[in-house]
Design brief:
Helix content: 25-40%
Number of domains: 1
Number of strands: 7
Distance between the termini: 38 Å
CATH class: Alpha Beta
CATH architecture: 3-Layer(aba) Sandwich
Radius of gyration: 14 Å
Shape: globular
Amino acid sequence: MTVKERDIALDFKTILKHYTILVPNNIAERGWPDRLIQLPKSVVIPCELKRVFVNKSGYYVLSDLRQEQCAWLAKWQYNGGKCFVFVGLIRDGEFLGYHCITVNEWRDWLYVSKEKRYAVYIKTSMAVLEWFEDYCRA
């Protein structure tokens, strides 16, 4: 069975089922994230969803994360917002788990799509939920 990006989107929705998940449909401006997670007090955390293939050397590159998406995330973080990329990891046709990618400095988003990332510290669904709740509190 081939894991598609829509499968990753369904997993995301299931993992964060206790949160309001919004799906923006903005054709006027490119780069909008795939999902917006609404928290109490109208706080919103944007999230880009990606499916990646881990190579034989054990790493992947977020090459499908377009520059306009990186720029959108950078602008959001520059203005004080939190955001992340939710990544479903696939190797040899098998689903491995997830990574949740954030950056410390807003300008680092501009390079995220070119960096090698190793498929270590892979998160389960429960670990993603715990990570997200900690990330919201930080």
